[in-house]
Design a protein that fits this description.
Blueprint (H helix, E strand, L loop, with lengths): L1 H6 L5 H16 L3 H8 L13 H5 L7 H8 L6 H8 L4 H8 L6 H11 L29 H4 L10 H8 L4 H8 L6 H8 L4 H9 L5 H10 L3
Length: 223
């Protein structure tokens, strides 16, 4: 109810700010309901999308990220507004702005190197027409494993880089390497014996695995 009132076009800025400040304080204290209300797109002030450009631009300085995120979903903003949104302190605002056509490649690379990808939001930023996919294999050197995972989005990732990922401590990286189309039968053999079942399952499901090895797996399982 507080979100609905705060997002109404009839409420004063002062009332809006007080209501949202209360929710943001509750979110900081761990309230799931407040986090959902502030972060889920279904609770965004969507009315702002149809407002005239001059009105929307007044929200560049809004202290609440949800309004700046709706602004960033527009496609008709001037260059200065995009520069500010690309440097917004809230990563969700920067991600939304980055989905526009013509996003500078360096903006996309910088965002992904800093925060990785959100895989449940389609299309992925690595699939953006302006993203320089030649940079993907360089993500293998990133210290953050969530960012390192993006190297696997390169279908031609060289075997030496895949081998490095199979040696990672994180199981999700080893599982990603096990399902990669460029992985070798030799690496798959190692991954079939992985200590984490999801890694072994990914290796067993990879069509790169020789047919004879697949038959052996089925026979050993009594299938």
């Amino acid at each position: 109810m507080r979100v609905a009132v705060a997002f109404s076009r009839h409420v004063t800025p002062g009332t809006r700010d007080r209501l949202l400040a209360l929710l943001e304080a509750e979110k900081a204290d761990g309230s799931v309901a407040a986090r959902v209300a502030l972060d889920w797109s279904s609770y965004e002030p969507s009315r702002l999308r149809d407002a005239p450009l001059a009105e929307r631009l007044t929200y560049l300085d809004c202290p609440h990220a949800v309004f700046r995120r709706v602004l960033a979903a527009g496609r008709d903003l001037p260059d200065e507004a995009w520069r500010r949104l690309d440097a917004d302190p809230d990563v969700s605002v920067r991600r939304t702005a980055a989905r526009r056509p013509g996003t500078p490649p360096q903006v996309l690379v910088r965002l992904l190197r800093a925060h990785g990808e959100v895989f449940h939001v389609q299309p992925l930023l690595v699939d953006h027409p302006e993203f320089p996919r030649r940079t993907l294999r360089g993500f293998v050197d990133e210290p953050d494993p969530r960012v390192r995972l993006l190297a696997l989005q390169d279908p031609e990732l060289p075997v030496p880089e895949l081998r490095r990922l199979t040696d990672c401590e994180e199981g999700f990286l080893r599982a990603g390497a096990a399902g990669h189309p460029n992985v070798t039968a030799e690496l798959l053999e190692r991954l079939l014996a992985d200590r984490e079942p999801e890694v072994a399952h990914a290796a067993a499901a990879n069509p790169v695995l020789p047919r004879a090895r697949m038959d052996r797996i089925l026979a050993e399982a009594g299938l």
